[in-house]
DNA sequence: GAGAACATGTAAGCGGTTACATGATTAT
DNA sequence: ATAATCATGTAACCGCTTACATGTTCTC
């Protein structure tokens, strides 16, 4: 059972929203679902070519002055079928790898300061991320009054990010306390 | 800046706890830090060989009857230095990829039942995981009374898992409500 | 008798990142 | 001037998974 390529579906899914160029796809993925997904050009362009070969997308070339030609891809009916098929298949869960925790696990021989520093960096990061997510959320909630279901699904994914980050922040506080306890040599 | 190999440090880190064979390392990683890390034999054995070549580990062969020889690896002083160096370097954060959310994001055209099913599966999974983590936690807390710092660091990593899973479960509840709302065609 | 645990490894191949290549236009 | 945005692609390489290869002992 060869490992299936999820990037294909990320690209195909983006085309299901509206016709787009490879460049647009990169941007939309980054800005739209950057909390939980990413793709690079080196993945997107070959996939696009492949999707056309398989009949899941078609390509129209738009001439532009000065800039390179824009290749705008549209999803086909077969492409939508393929996407829907993937959507209904079970979700596969890959093992997480969290480097921060790996370091923490091996840090008992080093100074607690090393761990404290890493956790504090992580905490700052999470604080920034949370703020950004909340801003996005606010804008989405006010934009949602009139619009359709798409935004509601988008909001669900964002809420996952918010809950995760809040959990991470709670953990940072607890862990920093514990590390400071170890530092000052106390039992607890 | 080539992407650095974290598996090496996972293996080296395991050897820092005690001398072990490749087989032991696999087991220890799975049972000990399986919540946030994993390695396969196809990674471990070549890395072990490489670590010996680099002088970060040494190997002793134990003859066994019936079973294949056990190759027990021990970390060297140079190996400990290398591990400590890595520990103090900044943590690198790789972009997450969460397939469940990718599907959810593209699911607005499909039936809400598809999404409900995926989220329910995820919820069950998280419930099982939480129960297991709590069991492990309980055992660790009672074992910790007398032991040193190692367990305290281990507990911190486990707590991260617990908070994450609790957040996921909160999200599942909220999201299932939302999806059921969409299903029954209501505005909210 | 089946399967898990013990034990070590190799080969093939994919998925993904990083760096390279090119070049105009617009904004600061 | 400098950087960012627009725009498309290729090449090299590495990390990792999956499958293969082999064989014994212990447990259900």
Specify the overall morphology of chain A.
Answer: elongated
Work out the strand percent of chain A: 5-15%
Low-confidence stretches of chain A: none
Number of distinct helices of chain A: 7
* Element order of chain A: H for helix, E for strand: HHHEEHHHH
Order of strands across the widest beta sheet of chain A? 1-2
Radius of gyration of chain A: 22 Å
Describe it for me?
Two copies of one chain form a homodimer. Chain A is mainly α and 188 residues long. The first copy, chain A, has two domains: 7-88, Arc Repressor Mutant, subunit A (Orthogonal Bundle); 99-183. Chain A is 65% helix and 6% strand. Chain A has helices at residues 7-17, 22-33, 41-53, 77-88, 99-105, 112-144, 149-183, and strands spanning 57-62, 70-75. Chain A has a two-stranded antiparallel sheet. The first copy, chain A, starts with 6 loop residues before the first helix and ends in a 5-residue tail after the last helix. In chain A, 30% of the residues are buried. The first copy, chain A, binds a DNA duplex (28 and 28 nucleotides) through residues 1-3, 5-7, 21-23, 39-43, 45-46, 64-71.
